[in-house]
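Exercise 7. Given the encoded structure of a 397-residue chain, write a plausible sequence.
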């Protein structure tokens, strides 16, 4: 009896050690170091093949997998990291810099430099993506009609459960980061850097996606810091520094007759410095069934911003293809709360809404914007709503 009592816990202990180690072993992440697979850290040798091999193996792995990019500069042509994969925990850990071809013709006609497609559970952490966009910007600025439109530096498309952290994107040809058709994407500690006059270099573009969170991010670029396209829902943006750039923009919306709307967007604790716009909603002056609703801009600081608070429903570049100049997009339930700072122009608050679909339930709460140390001006066309607390400029809703 005594023997039996001792052996029972012993057996249990042995069994649990056995099960514990087998669970740990079977879940042990595998690491694929791109250098071991032939990548060269000299910034010149084409390392694309080694990255694709690392991805193919990580994606085929039944267990969580890590792709490791050590310190150094790795030359990469366009790559597609395609899913679906056998596991849903792939981490791409980058200590080095990925370098794009400096001749923009190599990538310029492809839509993307680095594309993740149909993946689930991918984390990209650290690293610098140096897209070498300056020569394409020069081509575009020279007004040549033969310049390609350029590649987005990093895109996630039709993917779920994505994390991007501590990544730096430098001098993209076109958009820096794009999220399209995704669910549950978290970006944090991202840095985006391009010249204030670089064309089309949006920082982060989100569209047709739900549950995207952008935190603790610094964006200096030549176009929108963050642009929010049709079909974006449940987007959370917090603690972002924007400038130079064109601000945070919902839109352009309503380019198409049939278009998904934008709903439930929170933009909080953001500083705009020297930007063209601050909090902007923009739609084409064209017929559309699109909408933007339940939008909150909260705790925003404006430093010398040209259009701090702006709704523009008459967007029509070159006055082309906008029959009647009336937007079909319905904008409602937009709240501006605790917005203060300085405007670089006299009109700091401008709601220029659609005559066919006036903006409704616009709320201004504790807004104080000055121009040259004076209260700035507000302008409202086809906009209705309420003001509460101290609102300066006041009296246009
Ligand atoms: C709005 O989006 C946030 C995430 O940004 C989410 O937590 C919240 O549940 C959403 N609200 C509604 C009503 O869907």
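Solution.
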């Amino acid at each position: 009896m005594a023997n039996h009592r001792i052996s029972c816990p012993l057996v249990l202990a042995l069994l649990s050690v056995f099960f514990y180690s087998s669970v740990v072993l079977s879940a042990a992440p595998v690491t694929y170091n791109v250098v071991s697979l032939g990548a060269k850290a000299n910034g010149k040798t084409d390392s694309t093949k080694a990255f694709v091999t690392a991805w193919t193996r990580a994606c085929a792995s039944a267990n969580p997998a890590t792709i490791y990019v050590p310190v150094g500069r790795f030359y990469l042509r366009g790559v597609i990291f395609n899913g679906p994969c056998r596991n849903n925990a792939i981490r791409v850990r980058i200590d080095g810099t990925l370098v794009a071809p400096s001749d923009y013709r190599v990538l310029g006609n492809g839509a993307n430099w680095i594309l993740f497609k149909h993946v689930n559970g991918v984390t990209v952490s650290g690293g610098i993506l140096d897209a070498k966009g300056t020569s394409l910007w020069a081509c575009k600025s020279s007004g040549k009609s033969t310049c390609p439109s350029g590649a987005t530096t990093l895109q996630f498309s039709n993917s779920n459960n994505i994390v991007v952290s501590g990544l730096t994107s430098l001098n993209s040809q076109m958009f820096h980061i794009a999220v399209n058709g995704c669910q549950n994407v978290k970006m944090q500690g991202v840095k985006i850097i391009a010249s204030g006059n670089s064309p089309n270099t949006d920082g982060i573009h989100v569209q047709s996606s739900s549950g995207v969170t952008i935190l603790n991010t610094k964006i200096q670029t030549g176009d929108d810091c963050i642009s929010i396209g049709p079909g974006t829902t449940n987007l959370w943006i917090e603690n972002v520094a924007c400038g130079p750039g064109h601000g945070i923009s919902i839109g352009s919306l309503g380019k198409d007759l049939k278009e998904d709307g934008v709903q439930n967007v929170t933009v909080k604790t953001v500083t705009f410095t020297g930007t063209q716009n601050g909090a902007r909603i923009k739609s084409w002056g064209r017929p559309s069934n699109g909408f933007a609703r339940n939008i909150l801009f909260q705790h925003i600081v404006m430093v010398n911003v040209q259009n701090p608070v702006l709704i523009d429903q008459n967007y029509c570049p070159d006055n082309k293809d906008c029959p009647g100049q009336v937007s079909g997009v319905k904008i409602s339930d937009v709240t501006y709360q605790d917005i203060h700072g300085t405007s670089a122009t006299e009109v700091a608050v401008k709601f220029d809404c659609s005559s066919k679909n006036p903006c409704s339930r616009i709320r201004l709460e504790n807004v104080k914007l000055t121009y040259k140390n004076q209260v700035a001006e507000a302008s409202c066309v086809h906009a209705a709503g309420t003001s509460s607390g101290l609102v300066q400029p006041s009296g246009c809703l």
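Remark. The chain has two domains: 28-176, 224-397. Students should compare their own answers with the one above.
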